[in-house]
Amino acid sequence: MTTTITLNGEEHELAGPTSALELVAGIVGRDLRPDGTPSDGTRLGIAVAVDGEVLRRGRWAEFALDEGHTVDVVTAVQGG
């Protein structure tokens, strides 16, 4: 069963039950620890909001994305 979410303003289908952590790991193409930090010890610089509310990194692994969720994944960048 697929789940359809809106990801950064565009419709996105998930193949099955997916956590916010799994979604972010797939987007950035990196292995992430259950606390949302990269396995290689580097910084990630990513924030996730679901339905307009910021989701703390420590909750990514336990937060299951559901049909109709609106998810915004943003990357921090330096400069102005």
What features would you describe in this structure?
- The protein is mainly beta and 80 residues long.
- Helices cover 11% and strands 34% of the residues.
- It has one helix and seven strands.
- Strands 2-1-7-4-5 form a five-stranded mixed sheet, with no helix packed on it. Strands 3-6 form a two-stranded antiparallel ribbon.
- It is globular.
The neighbouring-strand order within the major sheet is 2-1-7-4-5
* Helix/strand order: EEEHEEEE
Give the overall silhouette: globular
Radius of gyration, in angstroms, nearest whole number: 12 Å
**Mean pLDDT figure:** 94
Number of helices: 1
How much of the residues is beta strand, in percent? 25-35%
Topology:
Blueprint: E1 3-7, E2 10-14, E3 18-19, H1 20-28, E4 46-50, E5 53-54, E6 64-65, E7 70-75
Parallel strand pairs: 1-7
Antiparallel strand pairs: 1-2, 3-6, 4-5, 4-7
Quick synopsis:
11% of the residues lie in helices and 34% in strands.
What distinguishing features does this structure have?
single chain, mainly beta, 80 residues, 1 helix, five-stranded mixed sheet
